[in-house]
Protein backbone atom coordinates (compact mmCIF):
# COMPACT_ATOMS: atom_id res chain seq x y z
CA UNK A 1 0.00 0.00 0.00
CA UNK A 2 1.26 3.49 -0.82
CA UNK A 3 0.10 6.23 1.52
CA UNK A 4 -0.62 9.54 -0.22
CA UNK A 5 0.09 12.60 1.94
CA UNK A 6 -1.11 16.07 0.88
CA UNK A 7 -0.22 19.29 2.70
CA UNK A 8 -2.21 22.50 2.21
CA UNK A 9 -0.40 25.57 3.57
CA UNK A 10 0.61 29.16 2.76
CA UNK A 11 4.17 27.95 3.53
CA UNK A 12 4.46 24.74 1.43
CA UNK A 13 8.25 25.00 1.66
CA UNK A 14 8.00 23.63 5.22
CA UNK A 15 7.46 20.22 3.66
CA UNK A 16 10.62 20.17 1.51
CA UNK A 17 12.22 18.50 4.55
CA UNK A 18 10.17 15.38 3.83
CA UNK A 19 12.59 14.57 1.00
CA UNK A 20 15.34 13.99 3.59
CA UNK A 21 16.26 11.03 5.81
CA UNK A 22 14.10 8.00 6.40
CA UNK A 23 11.03 9.72 5.06
CA UNK A 24 12.89 10.44 1.84
CA UNK A 25 13.69 6.75 1.67
CA UNK A 26 10.03 5.88 2.18
CA UNK A 27 9.20 8.12 -0.77
CA UNK A 28 11.93 6.45 -2.88
CA UNK A 29 10.62 3.02 -1.83
CA UNK A 30 7.11 3.96 -2.89
CA UNK A 31 5.74 3.57 0.65
CA UNK A 32 4.51 7.16 0.67
CA UNK A 33 3.94 9.89 -1.89
CA UNK A 34 4.06 13.50 -0.75
CA UNK A 35 2.33 16.53 -2.33
CA UNK A 36 2.64 20.03 -0.85
CA UNK A 37 0.29 22.74 -2.11
CA UNK A 38 0.30 26.52 -1.74
CA UNK A 39 -3.15 27.64 -0.59
CA UNK A 40 -2.61 30.96 -2.35
CA UNK A 41 -2.81 29.10 -5.68
CA UNK A 42 -6.57 29.04 -5.07
CA UNK A 43 -6.93 32.80 -4.59
CA UNK A 44 -7.98 35.15 -7.42
CA UNK A 45 -7.04 38.64 -6.28
CA UNK A 46 -3.85 40.51 -7.00
CA UNK A 47 -2.64 40.17 -3.40
CA UNK A 48 -3.52 36.43 -3.22
CA UNK A 49 -5.49 37.15 -0.03
CA UNK A 50 -6.18 34.22 2.32
CA UNK A 51 -7.27 36.06 5.47
CA UNK A 52 -9.76 38.61 6.75
CA UNK A 53 -10.87 40.20 10.02
CA UNK A 54 -12.87 38.01 12.45
CA UNK A 55 -16.68 38.37 12.39
CA UNK A 56 -17.76 39.57 15.83
CA UNK A 57 -14.48 41.39 16.33
CA UNK A 58 -11.39 40.24 18.20
CA UNK A 59 -7.65 40.26 17.65
CA UNK A 60 -5.82 38.87 14.64
CA UNK A 61 -7.06 37.54 11.32
CA UNK A 62 -9.04 34.48 10.26
CA UNK A 63 -8.35 32.36 7.16
CA UNK A 64 -11.07 32.86 4.53
CA UNK A 65 -13.11 29.75 3.57
CA UNK A 66 -13.10 30.31 -0.20
CA UNK A 67 -9.48 29.32 -0.98
CA UNK A 68 -9.80 26.20 1.21
CA UNK A 69 -12.98 25.09 -0.54
CA UNK A 70 -11.49 25.54 -3.99
CA UNK A 71 -8.29 23.78 -2.93
CA UNK A 72 -10.35 20.85 -1.59
CA UNK A 73 -12.23 20.64 -4.90
CA UNK A 74 -8.95 20.61 -6.82
CA UNK A 75 -6.89 18.34 -4.58
CA UNK A 76 -9.42 15.87 -3.13
CA UNK A 77 -12.53 16.23 -5.29
CA UNK A 78 -16.20 17.12 -4.95
CA UNK A 79 -17.54 13.68 -4.07
CA UNK A 80 -17.72 12.52 -0.43
CA UNK A 81 -15.15 9.84 0.42
CA UNK A 82 -14.81 8.77 4.08
CA UNK A 83 -11.61 6.86 3.22
CA UNK A 84 -9.85 10.23 2.91
CA UNK A 85 -8.62 11.43 6.30
CA UNK A 86 -8.35 15.22 6.63
CA UNK A 87 -6.29 16.49 9.56
CA UNK A 88 -6.59 20.02 10.94
CA UNK A 89 -3.81 20.65 13.45
CA UNK A 90 -5.26 23.11 15.99
CA UNK A 91 -4.61 24.19 19.59
CA UNK A 92 -8.22 23.23 20.32
CA UNK A 93 -7.81 19.73 18.92
CA UNK A 94 -7.85 16.29 20.50
CA UNK A 95 -4.38 15.48 21.90
CA UNK A 96 -2.44 13.49 19.29
CA UNK A 97 -1.34 10.14 20.71
CA UNK A 98 0.54 7.03 19.66
CA UNK A 99 -2.75 5.17 19.25
CA UNK A 100 -3.94 7.84 16.82
CA UNK A 101 -0.65 7.44 14.92
CA UNK A 102 -1.20 3.68 14.88
CA UNK A 103 -4.71 4.09 13.41
CA UNK A 104 -3.59 6.66 10.82
CA UNK A 105 -0.71 4.42 9.68
CA UNK A 106 -3.25 2.09 8.04
CA UNK A 107 -4.94 4.85 6.02
CA UNK A 108 -4.29 5.25 2.28
CA UNK A 109 -4.81 9.00 2.01
CA UNK A 110 -4.21 11.83 4.48
CA UNK A 111 -4.64 15.56 3.78
CA UNK A 112 -3.11 18.01 6.26
CA UNK A 113 -4.78 21.45 6.41
CA UNK A 114 -2.24 23.78 7.97
CA UNK A 115 -3.81 26.96 9.27
CA UNK A 116 -2.11 30.21 10.17
CA UNK A 117 -3.15 33.54 11.76
CA UNK A 118 -5.78 32.86 14.48
CA UNK A 119 -7.11 29.85 12.60
CA UNK A 120 -9.40 28.76 9.75
CA UNK A 121 -13.06 29.83 9.24
CA UNK A 122 -14.98 27.08 11.06
CA UNK A 123 -17.22 26.40 8.06
CA UNK A 124 -14.20 24.86 6.32
CA UNK A 125 -13.99 22.19 9.02
CA UNK A 126 -17.76 21.73 9.03
CA UNK A 127 -17.71 21.29 5.24
CA UNK A 128 -14.84 18.82 5.41
CA UNK A 129 -16.78 16.77 7.97
CA UNK A 130 -19.61 16.35 5.42
CA UNK A 131 -17.15 14.95 2.88
CA UNK A 132 -14.27 13.08 4.54
CA UNK A 133 -13.09 11.69 7.87
CA UNK A 134 -11.87 14.72 9.81
CA UNK A 135 -9.43 14.85 12.73
CA UNK A 136 -8.83 18.08 14.67
CA UNK A 137 -5.59 17.27 16.49
CA UNK A 138 -3.32 19.12 18.91
CA UNK A 139 0.35 18.35 19.56
CA UNK A 140 0.15 19.59 23.11
CA UNK A 141 -0.60 22.44 25.48
CA UNK A 142 1.67 25.09 24.00
CA UNK A 143 1.15 27.60 21.21
CA UNK A 144 2.64 27.33 17.73
CA UNK A 145 2.24 29.91 14.95
CA UNK A 146 0.58 27.51 12.56
CA UNK A 147 -0.17 23.90 11.72
CA UNK A 148 2.92 23.06 9.64
CA UNK A 149 5.22 21.88 12.45
CA UNK A 150 2.40 19.78 13.89
CA UNK A 151 1.75 18.27 10.46
CA UNK A 152 5.43 17.29 10.22
CA UNK A 153 5.40 15.73 13.70
CA UNK A 154 2.22 13.79 13.02
CA UNK A 155 3.64 12.67 9.65
CA UNK A 156 6.80 11.27 11.26
CA UNK A 157 4.87 9.49 14.01
CA UNK A 158 2.50 7.91 11.47
CA UNK A 159 4.84 7.02 8.59
CA UNK A 160 7.37 5.24 10.82
CA UNK A 161 4.60 2.78 11.71
CA UNK A 162 3.84 1.84 8.09
CA UNK A 163 4.87 -1.81 7.57
CA UNK A 164 8.17 -1.88 5.66
CA UNK A 165 9.26 1.59 6.75
CA UNK A 166 11.45 0.68 9.72
CA UNK A 167 14.37 -1.70 9.15
CA UNK A 168 13.57 -3.74 12.26
CA UNK A 169 9.83 -3.50 13.02
CA UNK A 170 10.34 -5.54 16.23
CA UNK A 171 11.90 -2.44 17.82
CA UNK A 172 8.60 -0.59 17.35
CA UNK A 173 6.80 -3.06 19.59
CA UNK A 174 9.19 -2.34 22.49
CA UNK A 175 8.90 1.45 22.35
CA UNK A 176 7.18 3.48 25.01
CA UNK A 177 3.55 4.27 24.17
CA UNK A 178 3.36 1.30 21.75
CA UNK A 179 0.19 -0.78 22.02
CA UNK A 180 0.41 -3.52 24.63
CA UNK A 181 3.38 -1.82 26.29
CA UNK A 182 3.05 -0.84 29.93
CA UNK A 183 2.82 2.97 29.98
CA UNK A 184 6.39 3.57 31.19
CA UNK A 185 9.06 6.03 30.06
CA UNK A 186 12.18 4.65 28.40
CA UNK A 187 15.07 3.69 30.76
CA UNK A 188 18.45 5.52 30.41
CA UNK A 189 20.56 4.32 27.46
CA UNK A 190 24.34 3.82 27.29
CA UNK A 191 26.90 2.74 24.69
CA UNK A 192 30.73 2.64 24.40
CA UNK A 193 33.10 3.93 25.70
CA UNK A 194 32.39 2.29 29.08
CA UNK A 195 34.14 5.21 30.83
CA UNK A 196 33.62 8.76 29.58
CA UNK A 197 34.73 11.96 31.33
CA UNK A 198 34.85 10.16 34.66
CA UNK A 199 31.40 8.60 34.25
CA UNK A 200 30.99 4.84 33.82
CA UNK A 201 28.25 2.76 32.25
CA UNK A 202 26.24 1.12 35.11
CA UNK A 203 28.02 -2.16 35.91
CA UNK A 204 24.87 -4.26 35.63
CA UNK A 205 24.66 -3.39 31.92
CA UNK A 206 28.14 -4.84 31.37
CA UNK A 207 27.39 -7.98 33.42
CA UNK A 208 25.88 -10.02 30.61
CA UNK A 209 23.25 -11.10 33.15
CA UNK A 210 20.05 -10.54 31.14
CA UNK A 211 17.72 -11.05 34.08
CA UNK A 212 19.46 -8.44 36.20
CA UNK A 213 19.67 -6.06 33.23
CA UNK A 214 15.92 -6.37 32.59
CA UNK A 215 15.26 -5.81 36.29
CA UNK A 216 17.50 -2.70 36.38
CA UNK A 217 15.87 -1.26 33.26
CA UNK A 218 12.35 -1.81 34.60
CA UNK A 219 13.25 -0.17 37.91
CA UNK A 220 14.76 2.83 36.11
CA UNK A 221 11.64 3.14 33.92
CA UNK A 222 9.38 3.00 36.97
CA UNK A 223 11.42 5.67 38.80
CA UNK A 224 11.52 7.94 35.76
CA UNK A 225 7.80 7.55 35.07
CA UNK A 226 6.84 8.15 38.70
CA UNK A 227 9.01 11.28 38.75
CA UNK A 228 8.17 12.82 35.37
CA UNK A 229 4.85 11.34 34.25
CA UNK A 230 2.79 10.20 37.27
CA UNK A 231 -0.24 10.64 35.01
CA UNK A 232 0.85 7.55 33.06
CA UNK A 233 0.71 5.40 36.17
CA UNK A 234 -2.98 6.17 36.92
N1 LIG B 1 -1.54 21.22 16.48
C1 LIG B 1 -1.32 22.21 17.04
C2 LIG B 1 -0.98 23.37 17.78
C3 LIG B 1 -1.02 24.73 17.44
C4 LIG B 1 -1.53 25.40 16.22
C5 LIG B 1 -2.01 24.66 15.14
C6 LIG B 1 -2.55 25.29 14.05
C7 LIG B 1 -2.60 26.69 14.01
C8 LIG B 1 -3.13 27.62 13.08
C9 LIG B 1 -2.90 28.90 13.60
N2 LIG B 1 -2.27 28.76 14.80
C10 LIG B 1 -1.85 29.88 15.63
C11 LIG B 1 -2.75 30.03 16.80
C12 LIG B 1 -2.23 30.36 18.00
C13 LIG B 1 -3.08 30.52 19.09
C14 LIG B 1 -4.44 30.34 18.93
N3 LIG B 1 -4.94 30.00 17.75
C15 LIG B 1 -4.10 29.85 16.68
C16 LIG B 1 -2.09 27.44 15.09
C17 LIG B 1 -1.54 26.82 16.18
N4 LIG B 1 -0.57 25.44 18.50
N5 LIG B 1 -0.23 24.56 19.47
C18 LIG B 1 -0.48 23.30 19.08
N6 LIG B 1 -0.27 22.17 19.85
TrEMBL record:
Note the SUPFAM superfamilies from the entry: alpha/beta knot
Query: Which Pfam families does this entry report, sorted A to Z?
Result: tRNA_m1G_MT (PF01746)
Q: Which Enzyme Commission numbers does its entry carry? A: 2.1.1.228
For this protein, the record's PANTHER family field holds: TRNA (GUANINE-N(1)-)-METHYLTRANSFERASE (PTHR46417)
Q: Which family does it belong to?
A: Belongs to the RNA methyltransferase TrmD family.
Function as written in the Swiss-Prot or TrEMBL entry: Specifically methylates guanosine-37 in various tRNAs.
What is the recorded name of this protein? tRNA (guanine-N(1)-)-methyltransferase
Amino acid sequence: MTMRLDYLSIFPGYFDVLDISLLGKAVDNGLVEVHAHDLRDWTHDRHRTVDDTPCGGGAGMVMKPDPWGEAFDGIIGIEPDPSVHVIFPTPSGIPFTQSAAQELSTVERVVFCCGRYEGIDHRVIDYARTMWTVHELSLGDYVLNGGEVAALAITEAVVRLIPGFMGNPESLAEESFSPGQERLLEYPLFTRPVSWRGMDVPEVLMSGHHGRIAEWRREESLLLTRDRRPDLTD
